[in-house]
Amino acid sequence: MIKKLLLLALVALPMSVAAQTIKLGHFKSSDVLQGMPEFTQAQNELNKQAQMHDEEYKRITGEYQKTLEEFVNAQDSLPQNIAERRQKELQDMAQKVQEYAQFADQDLSQLQKKLMEPIILKVNNAVKAVGDAEGMTYIFDLSTTTIPYVNDKVSIDLTAAIKSKLGAQ
After folding, report:
1. Which of 29, 47, 69, 114 has its CA 20 to 30 A from that of 131?
2. Please, are residues 33 and 147 in contact by the beta-carbon 8 Å criterion?
3. Residue 94 gets which letter from DSSP?
4. Could you tell me the strand order of the sheet in which 155-157 lies?
């Protein structure tokens, strides 16, 4: 009896697997994001903040260069104790320039994360909704996943459907 049940299960297993259809889909998140007004606004805000950091960086490096040039030109005529104090000031200024560059990078990185998290969440929710509506088993993002070949006869390009779901252009 157990052998008959086991044999029946082994015969039925391939049939049940064949009955399940695997639907593959793909999209390009870069195309989706480019069409979203929220993404454009985030990029504009990031660019504005980056420009402000660039201007401040140029200002402090300009001050450093000016102070360095003044020191180099006056170095031979300065008493040793004043020359050493100015060298220390130059070292401090150089460190502040380096610290500001690190701060600016961190600030822009944090701002990008803050601005992009809700946008990415919105895209992911749209992908899930389209996947559910289309009965997809898997959806691959060709912008972030390296897939050397996609057979368009088997995998459905869902980029337009996801853009539509988001109201993106």
Report:
1. 114
2. no
3. H
4. 138-141, 24-27, 155-157
3-state helix, strand and coil shares in percent for the chain, rounded to the nearest 5: 75, 5, 20
Report domain extents, the chain.
18-166
Q: How confident is the model at residue 63 (pLDDT cuts 50, 70, 90)?
A: very high
Which own/partner pairs from 14-21 qualify as long-range (CB within 8 Å, at least 24 positions apart)?
none
Instruction: Tell me which fold the domain 18-166 belongs to.
Output: Protein Binding, DinI Protein; Chain A (3.30.910)
**Placement of tokens 């701002």 in the chain:** 111
Tokens of 11: 């015969």
Summarize pLDDT for 130-140 with one digit per residue, the tens.
Answer: 999 999 999 99
Handedness of CA 123, 126, 132, 134 (dihedral sign): negative
